[in-house]
Amino acid sequence: KFLHPVSEQCRRDCISKFIDATGNDATATSICAVCAGHFFSTEIGAVKVSDLEQKNKLMLTKPHPAHVLTNGMLLHTSDDCLHRARSWATTGLQSGLRGNVSSYRLNTQDVVHMTDGQLMPPSSSILAATIGVTFVGPKNLPQKTLPGFLRVNRTCVRDALLWLKRNNPVYEDIIISSDRLNELPIDGIPDEISSLAKHSNDTSLLAEETDGYVPEPCANDDDAQNIPLHSLGVVDVAASDVNENEMLAHALLNVARSEIEDGWAIKHGSDFVNEYPRKTADGKLSDGYGNNPNHLLGSFPCLFPYGKGGFEVKRPFPVTYSNHARWAIRYADKRFRKDLYFIFEVFGVLQKCQVCRATALQITRSSFLQHEREIRQLTPFDFETAAAEEQAHKPFSNPVMRNLRQNLSTVRAKTMATDKSRINIRSLIWGMCIKKNPPSVWLTINPADTQDPVAHVLCGENIDLDAFDAHDERPSAVAIAADPFASASFFHLTINALLQTLLGIEGYTHNQSIHHEIGILREVSAFIGTIEAQGRGTLHLHMILWLCGSPPLQEMKERL
């Protein structure tokens, strides 16, 4: 019955299920020998090397001296990787300081003017143009409080450039400048950063910078060498920098594909925005060495030290950008997921790809009726040809497309976090209210990652979740801030466990129905939820629940 309390036994059963869903077995992780990715142990299984399927896909097509092979296959075979992943030094990790690292879109043309082609390293003046530090506190802080990642060691920079010149084809033509190296400190914070560091006495800004739904305990340790810095990014979610020509070209291609796609055709997800992959003259993918390297191979030498393995490069078996990104953030040594610049770069590309793939053509009803006969005669080939001509900035060769050009407009739909996506959610809520009566519960769930031992286990700590009394003094903000993927994994694990065990609901992918059973709120007939990120980047969930047996609006008013 609606809003009738469940039995005490039901509540205990739900709590017991939730404890099991967040215990040792549920949070245990393993490393896949094939892709070297971190997965929950329940997602993978053990198999003999001799029984592996499709061994040909694990054979090397481009051998490299750094490869270690097992039976001729490239497998992940490290014996102590899991131990390293779950160990953490527990001393000196908390700090009396905390802060945010915010990434903004820069004027790339101005930055390019500060670089001199193949001359490396870039002038130290580029640091002042791209990095700014602001201290907020009651008094000036000494330079030693600047975080360690701002330190520069001249010898390390020189050795790194020499190694890249020898081993990385992207950097083989660089010219190492002794004068530029001498501009850098022997071992310290560059003057271009320390001299421009600002100070503010307005401590009210601290609450705005770190405020969230869940209060965090204050750290008493004054060690300034390990400062928890939460990284934030200002991202153009609607990809407004994508010009209308490119939008129209992708919309035309999407129309053509919608006519010919079936269960065996290549889906939109395998296509790329033409700005990012490097291609040869015959249209094939390449690494793009020289003056136009692949955007990841050229930007992240620490992640791709040998200049190989970039996204959207020539491969025997094509790998989509999104699938390659999923592989990277799960990689065993965690170097991709802990490089926050890599995360922002890849997300920006995925967002732009999503906008272009979801772009649709729109025409007014009056214009459609006026040109209906010509429109029905168009073929997928006509749209593909028009898309190629639009990308090349050429006029349409098809007279029908020329006539329609002024009547066509593009719509950015099905793109995460845009106004269009919010309108779709509101439409779902109104439709559900008509079908299920007014919603019964408005719910906000905000798991506290820095205070939860489950999150620390996913960061690599060795904690027995099935037998612990209280969370002791372990790294909290530092560990979470350094591994945003672990924080997101903790959020999804917690939310799924809460919905399935406490509320008794489980949704199905690409299916509008849900499986529901008795939970602490009795039966939930439907729900709509949206995930948001708060000020410091942690995730929270807003949900609306419709309980079974909820009365219509008029009856609810009468009872109230």
UniProtKB/TrEMBL annotation:
Residues 324-545 form the Helitron helicase-like domain. Residues 88-182 form the DUF6570 domain. InterPro entries: DUF6570, Helitron_helicase-like. Pfam families: DUF6570, Helitron_like_N. This is Helitron helicase-like domain-containing protein. It comes from Lactarius akahatsu.
